[in-house]
Predict the structure.
Amino acid sequence: MTAATPTTTRRPAFWRNVRVLRVTFQAVFLVAVVGLLLFLFDNVVYNLERLGIPTGFDYLRQPAGFAIPDTDFRSSQSLLDALLVGVQNTIKVALLGIVLATIIGVIVGVSRLSSNWLVRRVAALYVETFRNIPVLVIILFWYLGVMIRLPPIREGVELLDMVAISNRGIVVPWFDQVGGGLTFAIFALIGLLAAAAVWTWRTRRFEATGQPHRRALWTGGVLLLILAIGFVLAGRPWTLDTPETGELSTSGGFRLAPEYAALLIALSLYTASHIAEIVRGSILAVPRGQGEAADAVGLSGFQRLRHVVLPQAFRISIPPISNQYLNLTKNSSLGVAISYYEVTKVTQVSIAQSAPAVQAIVVLMGIYLVLSLFIAAVTNLFNRRLTLKGRR
Amino acid sequence: MRVFQGWTLCVLFAVVLFLGAGCSLGDDDDDSGNGDASGDTGSAEAGGGGQDGGGSLLQEVQDRGTLRCGVNDAVPGFGFTGEGGEPQGFDIDFCKVIAAAVLGDAEAVEYTPLSAEQRFTALQSGEIDVLSRNTTYTASRDGTEGARFLHTTFYDGQGMMVRTESGHTTLEDLAGETICVLSGTTTELNLESQFQARGIDYTPLAFEDNEPLQAAFVEERCGAWTSDKSQLAGIRSAWPEGQGGPEALTIMDETMSKEPLGPVVSDGDDAWADAVNWAVYATIQAEEFGLTSENIGEGSEDPEIQRFLGEAVEGEPFDAGLGLPDDFAVQVVTQVGNYAEIYDRNVGEGSALELPRDFNALWTDGGLQFAPPYR
């Protein structure tokens, strides 16, 4: 078909012309798909109207009527506000979950390649356990099996008068602002600038002299020092707020609700088991010669890992790990099972409280799409920065 | 090789074209049929999704021979799974009442257990014919859920249950408490509005199902449980001895709301709604006439009762034009019972709940249960 010789001047008939056919087929296919979607859409709208169910998105402005625990949300606020609170709760789980899962995952992944038999086996046991149990079961275990089986509040445990533990939540001391925020903010800004300057200075010095830079140590030290001075000069703008256990609830401190804690722990542990395998695979994918070269120039075991193997493994692991981040975010919707008010739960409750189901689910899908695309965009940005030039 | 690839592509495109044409043809057909008669074939394939035009759900149910009833399976007394694995309870009995009236067989019911959050979607999609699942009649549900609320079979109110040992007796005692509630219920909304109005601080903990809620209550994750008083009474009566039995729980005297509960059908099918409504009225009318499942066979000289029982008065049996069999009331009362029998057996004196009739007494006894005249 492609072997058209330049000498032939007669064009083929249009029904044998590949280009015409291709365009036609694609156009027909497009029409069919669009037609099908239009038909489905029309069908939904027709049936909703027949049942007298509202078809627009005006319902989002109605007052919610229900309360959301552990937030400032008032039931007189609109369903849209309720959804936003739900999104916040989803992000709270997803973000912290991603951080925790990454830390645990990297540690376990590296441990699986350890030369220590015990460490290696324990890591393998962890991975095999969590990877092979459905995440919903893990969540239910942490909630019904652990969190609500903590002692009831009247028998609540207090550690050193600082941490209160009961099945109403784990309460840790938290900072309470009492004033002088602006002065402190200025100091914080100065501290950050100074820290950046120190970082650059240590890097330049290292490049010039080759002596260990210890950037993290220097920068952190300078930042902490300036923050401490600022704290004192601003008249101690924060005090430590320790939990106070009452008869029915605790006041003060920062309360980690059992539902939130169970979801966070379960998602982190589950996702970490997958990340661990990705990390292990990525390390094994770094050519053996790289490690041998590191040995040859006399780097220590830790240095070899930190400066030679991990940076290269990191590059390999970003695309699959970003996939796991997406999974974790989407799995957070399982919080409905344990009454954690993330965005799916809020949607479900509003549907039950007379928000139209079709629209509410469409909005929910849109929210997850935006969240996922955002995470994908961030990880892609990382990936692009780290990809070796010429490898793309 | 290239030529071969080109051919495969062509074949592929041809297949796609075929499928595409099939789709577009199909949706042309449906589009044109949408306006007038989408009910004829479309609804049958879509599991009875629509019942517009001539085909009422009443006809569909009679053709099918079974009634699909959406129920609860976790509230003792109202809708729960009995010892033999059979669904039992007040709401279940009303499914049977409808089946007996429409089909002449109280056992021809397919039960679908539904959560509070699923129930209206199941009704809208046509998965169930009728919802008999302690559902409160409210304006917004009537307006936006495409639901039609029928006669209230049980007048209820929201209550609060606490552990007896906590010593709480009023809602004010619950300041700072965590309160368990089913999500997607009117109870959840009442709880919020009542506590806000009284300025009582509390933390709601809303579950989808009664089982995790009960687990949370047992573990004292929450110190109070709010629901319709009848449901609380049911749960209390079945409270396991290992947890201290019914004595371990107290239902506060306060009633926080009015909760009229009754069967619900899909909007826009009057014939079906009428049939279900009159099946329910039959139980109330029978109690008013003093007819029970025991004595209904004895007959009566009273022309009103004869008319009600579908006996031929002056030649023709009375036909109210409801599309129900002439003897539907007889079937309902003999197979299931009158309102008093249903009440006593499930939630009244003859049950573990021992709820007094109160508002659910007949209007002649000062209650609210009232059936329009059958004539």
Remarks:
- Chain B touches chain A through 61 residues (CB under 8 Å).
- The domain at 57-154+261-365 of chain B is CATH 3.40.190.10 (D-Maltodextrin-Binding Protein; domain 2).
- The longest strand of chain B covers residues 158-163.
